[in-house]
């Protein structure tokens, strides 16, 4: 697990090759980390998102990921993904794992060696933090991602502690 690092801070300050955005299927921005990333990246990011084709009215279905450049952000790319809305999604755990997996695979496919991740679906989408931490860390620990440098940017002390305890549990097992 030593390819995974935890930081308590703002993902818009990340200097990793790719920054993952917890977006919605329209990919036109929003609140939370989506709003923060669009504000920090500038209008170019939204302009690029608009060019992403819609399939059945969605630019990015839940569990999938789309990539754009990063505007004013220090990263090379923004990988937009959509997590599950916890209380209405028919398969929240599978969709959350898929959101992390698709994002990391897409970043790797574009030559990224380091990826900054938020706690996908843990805000507006209401995913319970401890369950989300287990899924996030288990997915990032899949063999295919062992050579990636993964940094979680956790926005407050509570969620950072939950990720720390979960990571420690995995490391000792
Ligand atoms: N840096 C890192 N993490 C952040 C930041 C930031 N600048 N801002 C918020 N977060 C954290 C939240 O505290 C939460 O732990 O990101 C996590 C994900 O929360 P949301 O941003 O609400 O994302 P999500 O729960 O996936 O909901 C997505 O919210 O903003 C809208 O357009 C978005 O409709 C979509 C929905």
Description of the molecule:
By secondary structure, this protein is α/β, with parallel strands linked by helices. The chain has one domain: Leucine Aminopeptidase, subunit E, domain 1. The protein contains five helices and six strands; from the N terminus they run ββααββαβαβα. It has helices at 32-41, 43-51, 92-109, 129-140, 157-172; strands spanning 4-8, 18-23, 65-69, 77-82, 114-117, 149-154. The protein has a six-stranded mixed β-sheet with strand order 1-6-5-2-4-3, sandwiched between helices. The model has no long low-confidence stretch (mean pLDDT 97). The structure holds adenosine-5-diphosphoribose. InterPro entries: Macro_dom, Macro_dom-like. It comes from Shewanella fodinae. Residues 1-171 form the Macro domain.
């Amino acid at each position: 697990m030593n390819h995974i690092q935890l930081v308590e801070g703002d993902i818009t300050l990340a200097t990793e090759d790719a920054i993952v955005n917890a977006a919605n299927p329209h990919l036109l921005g929003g609140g939370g980390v989506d709003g923060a990333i669009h504000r920090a990246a500038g209008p170019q990011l939204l302009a690029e998102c608009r060019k992403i084709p819609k399939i059945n009215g969605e630019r990015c279905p839940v569990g999938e990921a789309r990539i754009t450049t990063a505007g004013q952000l220090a990263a090379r790319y923004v990988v937009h993904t959509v997590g599950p809305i916890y209380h209405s999604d028919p398969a929240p755990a599978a969709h959350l794992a898929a959101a992390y997996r698709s994002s990391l695979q897409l970043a790797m496919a574009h030559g990224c060696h380091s990826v900054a991740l938020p706690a996908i679906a843990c805000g507006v989408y209401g995913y319970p933090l401890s369950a989300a931490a287990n899924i996030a860390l288990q997915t990032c620990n899949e063999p295919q991602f062992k050579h990636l440098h993964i940094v979680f940017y956790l926005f407050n002390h509570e969620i950072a502690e939950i990720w720390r305890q979960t990571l420690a549990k995995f490391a000792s097992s």
